[in-house]
């Protein structure tokens, strides 16, 4: 059982929890994730590790209230326990000194993006980060991102903060201005799809971190399968990061929506 030692609300629906997990804190790398459950019969939720404190033996997880399981995690208070937590899982991000990296995060995707931004900067790259969300309240980890980026651009759909517009508009402005050697995108699948289409047009190598549905997290169940370059890959063991230009985003989005009705029904029952 892993104890929650800190909790912070980024917004009404986005919560950061700091969880005791000394072994994971010691061995995690940017891009790694954990799978956790709340309750013996709880659904397994994959969450990328947003940060870690080796001295304290803790990891940071950022959760957005979406359905029953994520709400149960968000409702846990300091001093309470996560029933089980497995990790670090997945392949870490390949970090090299490439030149200029454009890091693009959407909504809660900013949490897994943070350690990647940090690592690229540490490796000597120039890092330009774009954070995007529907509105100001959904922009998270701005100060932390600013600390590790050479430039930070905020985009909101409604113009309530930063520049008004979609993430791709901010990206294109940067791409037209300077040479980008690699792009990383993490956020909703639809956002990653359009980021990827844009960078494909400009022939910029791009990596996307996928948030597929997961069950075992060890390559056994097939729940997280995606098609990359025409081949079946498992997000949990082959990813979560893939060459964005090779990902079949349409198939991925249709698989993500496969249980929508059941999720909505369950959430309605949960709220009653
Ligand atoms: Fe089961 Fe990836 S979660 S194969």
Automatic annotation (TrEMBL):
Binding residues for [2Fe-2S] cluster: 221, 224, 236
Molecular function GO terms recorded: 2 iron, 2 sulfur cluster binding; flavin adenine dinucleotide binding; metal ion binding; oxidoreductase activity
Pfam family of the protein (one): DHODB_Fe-S_bind
PROSITE patterns, per the entry: FAD_FR
Textual note on the cofactor: Binds 1 [2Fe-2S] cluster per subunit. Binds 1 FAD per subunit.
Coiled coil (UniProt feature): none
Cofactor: [2Fe-2S] cluster; FAD
InterPro entries referenced in this protein's UniProt entry, alphabetically: Cyt_c3_hydrogenase_gsu, Dihydroorotate_DH_Fe-S-bd, FAD-bd_FR_type, FNR_nucleotide-bd, PyrK_electron_transfer, Riboflavin_synthase-like_b-brl
Alphabetical UniProt keywords: 2Fe-2S, FAD, Flavoprotein, Iron, Iron-sulfur, Metal-binding
GO biological-process terms attached to the record: pyrimidine nucleotide biosynthetic process
Binding residue positions for FAD: 62-64
Domain FAD-binding FR-type, chain residue ranges per copy: 1-95
Protein name: Sulfide/dihydroorotate dehydrogenase-like FAD/NAD-binding protein
């Amino acid at each position: 059982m892993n104890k929650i030692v800190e909790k912070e609300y980024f917004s009404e629906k986005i919560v950061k929890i700091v969880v005791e997990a000394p072994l994971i804190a010691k061995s995690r790398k940017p891009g790694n994730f954990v799978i956790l459950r709340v309750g013996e019969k709880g659904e397994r939720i994959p969450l990328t590790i947003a940060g870690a404190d080796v001295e304290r033996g803790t990891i940071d997880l950022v959760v957005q209230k979406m359905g029953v399981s994520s709400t149960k995690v968000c409702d846990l208070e300091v001093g309470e326990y996560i029933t089980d937590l497995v990790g670090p899982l997945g392949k870490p991000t390949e970090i090299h000194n490439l030149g200029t990296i454009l890091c693009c995060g959407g909504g809660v995707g900013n949490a897994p993006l943070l350690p990647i931004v940090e690592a690229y900067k540490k490796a000597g790259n120039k890092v330009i980060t774009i954070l995007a969300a529907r509105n100001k309240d959904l922009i998270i980890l701005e100060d932390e991102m600013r600390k590790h980026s050479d430039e930070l651009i905020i985009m909101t759909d409604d113009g309530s903060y930063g520049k008004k517009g979609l993430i791709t508009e901010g990206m294109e402005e940067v791409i037209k201005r300077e040479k980008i050697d690699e792009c990383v995108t993490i956020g909703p699948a639809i956002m990653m799809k359009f980021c990827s289409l844009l960078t494909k047009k400009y022939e910029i190598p791009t990596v996307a971190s996928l948030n597929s549905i997961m069950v075992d997290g060890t390559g056994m169940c097939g729940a997280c399968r995606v098609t990359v370059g025409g081949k079946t890959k498992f997000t949990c063991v082959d990813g979560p990061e893939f060459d964005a230009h090779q990902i079949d985003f349409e198939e991925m989005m249709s698989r993500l929506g496969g249980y929508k009705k059941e999720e909505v029904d369950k959430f309605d029952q949960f709220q009653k």
